[in-house]
Design a protein that fits this description.
Proton-linked_MCT, MFS_dom, MCT, disordered N terminus, 20 helices, mainly alpha
């Protein structure tokens, strides 16, 4: 397939129009990508009993799914083919993975079907949706991202009670069949992702075809030149050019020069640390409620409470982040959100009953929504829209390791101590540490950027007098050159006076 026009840079985002339809499609695809790995945790207790597995073993299902969802392949495919076909393919893979999971007979098969195949389908939904919003919006981008990210809590609020209802009526196998059919709606969402500049793409292909015809006429001249002695030099040049082309192709999909970007490295380290404790609490929230004796529907309702608060928090955070007071220093706001999230987990063990878990779910939903609403906006703020696709790919490569290990480490702590509180304490401490690191390093980054900007202005001021002096000399010479013929009589008089003066001096 030829590359779509939304895979490359465009003239200017429209900031509206069809972009709001794209936001609606992103609302659906991002909602499933984020909410499905959390909502499926409703079945874990029953699947654990069915296959007679431990907490750490069942946690690998979510870990593999989340790690695959945050893999780098999606951003590479978007650069090559565009957002629309990638999201449609992702919807198909989601449906195939869940339908196949309904016929699994071992936990390993669940790892493959639910974890890998469905996770890959969700990955092909998540990143293209975020990337295409960046192509359609600039000034209203935080608001658009906030609205699209609100799809996650809306879907989670719906999926949590729906999954419990499906399980009670059809069992986990029948539920997986129905969920596979529901996930096919991602294909409809992907069909809404219209390329932003399709007309330019057709003009480019037409000009390329015309260029090929011109090149065919010059082939005979090139054949004659190939017989010359300079052919050996040309071959060495072409080899070097091929190596450069390979490097350019790699950099086109994954721009490794971003590792020289100070702000990107700070974001990368902080997020890798954050994801070590980001998903485990939400994966084990419903099983924890069932463990302490809360009924199944009330345990599922905790996820709905979290989702409802998250639903309000994401667009509200987008509006606040877009304000003139917060947007210039949005990295500080992001750091605070991560630390706030970790603080909620540290306080969770104090919630002994259902009322305490409801309060925890409210604050957790608020903190979770704040982090998710700014997760990609802060990255785009650092690297810009043109390098955002490559930045997402590189970040997801590094993040998938900690995403993969987070829930199993939490499950191992539960298996070892027989208590959920150590899992929540571990996740909270890691996230508070990540938020503190990002706050300090972003302060350092802002200070360094201010110093670099000050030095740049100082250099411009130092070179400005030299430029003005040179320009003055050039203007003076031009004026005298232009006025030379008119001032010729005066020059002759001056030369005559000099000769007379010299004559008297000689006498």
């Amino acid at each position: 397939m030829p590359p779509h026009s939304d895979a490359g840079p465009v003239a200017g985002p429209p900031d509206g129009g069809w972009g709001w339809v794209v936001v609606f499609g992103a609302f659906i695809s991002i909602g499933f990508a984020y909410a499905f790995p959390k909502g499926i945790a409703i079945f874990y207790k029953e699947i654990q009993d069915f296959f007679d597995t431990s907490y750490s073993e069942i946690a690998w299902v979510s870990s593999i799914m989340l790690a695959t969802t945050y893999g780098p392949i999606s951003s590479i495919l978007v650069n090559r083919y565009g957002s629309r076909p990638v999201v449609i393919l992702g919807g198909l893979l989601c449906g195939i993975g869940m339908v196949s999971a309904a016929f699994c007979t071992s936990i390993i098969q669940l790892y493959i079907c639910v974890g890998f195949i469905t996770g890959l389908g969700l990955a092909l939904n998540l990143q293209p949706s975020v990337i295409i919003i960046g192509r359609y919006f600039l000034k209203r981008r935080p608001i658009a991202n906030g609205l699209a990210m609100a799809g996650s809590p809306v879907m989670l609020c719906t999926l949590a009670p729906l999954n419990q209802f499906l399980f009670d009526n059809y069992g986990w196998r029948g539920s997986f069949l129905i969920l596979g059919a529901i996930l096919l709606h991602c294909c409809v969402a992907g069909a809404l992702f219209r390329p932003i500049s399709a007309d330019k793409a057709s003009v480019k292909t037409q000009s390329i075809e015309e260029g090929k015809e011109v090149l065919k006429e010059e082939v005979t001249k090139d054949v004659i030149e190939m017989n010359s002695p300079t052919n050996v030099r040309m071959e060495t040049k072409t080899e070097e050019e091929e190596e450069r082309d390979c490097c350019e192709k790699v950099n086109k999909y994954l721009d490794f020069s971003l590792f020289k970007h100070r702000g990107f490295l700070i974001y990368l380290i902080g997020n890798v640390l954050m994801f070590l404790g980001f998903f485990a609490p939400i994966v084990f929230l419903a099983p924890y409620a069932k463990h302490i004796g809360i009924d199944e529907y009330s345990a599922a309702f905790l996820l709905s409470i979290l989702a409802i608060v998250d639903m309000v928090a994401r667009p509200t955070t987008g509006i606040i982040a877009n304000s003139k007071w917060v947007r210039p220093r949005i990295q500080y706001f992001f750091s605070f959100s991560i630390a706030f999230n970790g603080t909620c987990h540290l306080l969770c063990p104090l919630a002994s009953g259902y009322t305490g878990l409801v309060i925890y779910s409210v604050f957790f939903g608020l903190a979770f929504g704040m982090v998710c609403a700014m997760l990609f906006e802060t990255l785009m703020d650092l690297v810009g829209a043109s390098r955002f696709t490559s930045a997402v790919g590189l970040v997801t490569i590094a993040e998938c390791c900690t995403i993969l290990l987070g829930p199993p480490i939490g499950g191992t702590l539960i298996d070892t101590f027989g208590d959920y509180k150590y899992m929540f304490i571990k996740c909270g401490a890691v996230m508070v540490l990540a938020g503190t690191f990002l706050f300090i390093m972003n302060y350092y980054n802002y200070r360094m950027l201010a110093k670099e900007e000050k030095k740049r202005k100082a250099k411009e001021e130092d070179t400005k007098p030299v430029r003005t002096e040179n320009e003055g000399r050039n203007n003076w010479n031009k004026e005298h050159v232009q006025d030379g013929p008119e001032l010729e009589p005066l020059r002759e008089e001056q030369e005559g006076l000099k000769k007379e003066a010299n004559g008297t001096n000689e006498v």
